[in-house]
Amino acid sequence: MKISKEKISKYVFFGIALSSLSVLAVITIFIFIKGLPIITKVGVINFVFGMNWAPSKGAFGIFPMIIGSVSVTLGAAILGVPIAICCSIFLAEFAPPTLRNIFRPAIQLLAGIPSVVYGFWGVLFIVPTIRNYLGGPGLSILAGSIILAIMILPTIISISEVALLSLPSQYKEAAMALGLTHWQTIHSLLLPAAKSGIVAAIILGIGRAMGETMAVIMVLGNAVAIPQSILDPVRTLTTNIGIEMGYASGEHQQALFATGIVLFVVIMLLNAIAQYVTRKK
Amino acid sequence: MMNMRKTIVIYRLIRLISLVVLVFSVSLMSACSQKPVVGIIVAGSTSVQPYTEVLAEEYILLNPGAEIDIQGGGSAAGITTTQSGTCDIGMSSRALNEGEKSLWYVEIARDGLAVIVNPSNPIQDLTLNQIRDIYSATISDWSQLGGSKAKIHIIAREEGSGTRSAFESLVMGTTQITPRAIVQDSNGAVRQLVKDDPNSIGFISMGLVNETVKALHLEGIAATRENVINGTYSLSRPFLFITLSEPTGITKQFIDFTLSPQGQQLLSKEGLIPSMEGTIK
Questions:
Q1: Domain total in chain A
Q2: Which of A100, A179, A232, B247 places its Cα 20 to 30 Å from the Cα of A166?
Q3: What is the mean pLDDT of residues B193-219?
Q4: What is the CATH number of the domain that holds A219?
């Protein structure tokens, strides 16, 4: 009797746990069923490297959007990563406990702000500033990169801070005993030792930037063309789905799901790399 | 003993979950059965939607107990959901093409399309050809049109939008809107951007033009309702109600109300151009 109860409870929890996994499976299968027909019809090469996007006229090329996603994400990484890593070093090594207790919740709060609020702030503040001081329409790669750089800060800071804090304390003690200064210890010992964790943090941050939709729809301008400068408007893979899904039907809708497939594969790859880097040690 | 307690807890948990599921499904069932028989679903063009909402409000005041559920989705969705029978009335902001003409449809009003610029822009008047050249990026600087020397920031609507397809058929013909155009996903967003950016040009529904932007004259003719009605201003498009077959019951009553002098007056007050004699085709 007891054993059967134990078994029942085990299966009940297994079943419930399985449901969360099956959601992933269902979504994956759905995206692929919806999106693959158009990819096979147009051809993978034509779809991924096609320069022309005009679904109502039968042109399905998403290459400008891939460039868009890459350029905005790269911009966000260039702006955000140095700040985030410096911030995590400060929190892990320099900050006195009182200051740390202010910084940490504040950074977590940054992660809690809804993305539409970031976008709204970007439209009302960053976009006009760029238009007035740097020229162009304001809606641009630069505006998107600034917003995304802020949005990926909490992810990178908290993960790399954990990576720094989880190093054995003997490392630091030994280094200090050998006469290294605090900065020498950080830069020649702690940072290399925590490298895998920090790299994983950066990759997860990049994945977050790649997947962000709402905030960038509002500040990127969504033009489907290869940009010539960082002041040009672009469209990313996510905003392509976000901006056109309301009206899409038929092949147009399939093409948006196919955009989702490409995005799905890219994010999966990024996450896999992050996993691999952290496991390697 | 511990195990006993654990299993009891699990059983209680299971009982709780099944209770929740039961309550949920019962309430869902009752909600379904309470659905009023006099309700209709109207879906489609987001350009027509706000006007249909005004009509429905007035209609419900006159016919208490009637229920009209209005949803967006775009003209294409309005047409396909009407064909599939998912909605009772489809809204479209473009004329039906040959394949769709088997549906029953009526023009409830016309809407003018205004080409708008920032009020600070010295240009008052453009020809159809000039607008086409701007949107195909043949003309790229305001100085080519007699304005100040500045790059033109072209703003368009997204693929699938009824306003975009109306603009394409009325202005662009076979020429394509340049992919470098900034894309915004609503009339309001286009108007906001034109208001903020002195070098921009956009197109929106005439009913939504206000003092923050300037509607350009077309070949010397002002973008006004009068000029749409007398046919001199050529940028206008039909707003259609579509049904699967000859309307009956509440669907017919609602369409009749829309075409009645009272309904037409409501639409006219909202900025639309009343339909010519309620042309039923």
A1: 1
A2: A179
A3: 92
A4: 1.10.3720.10
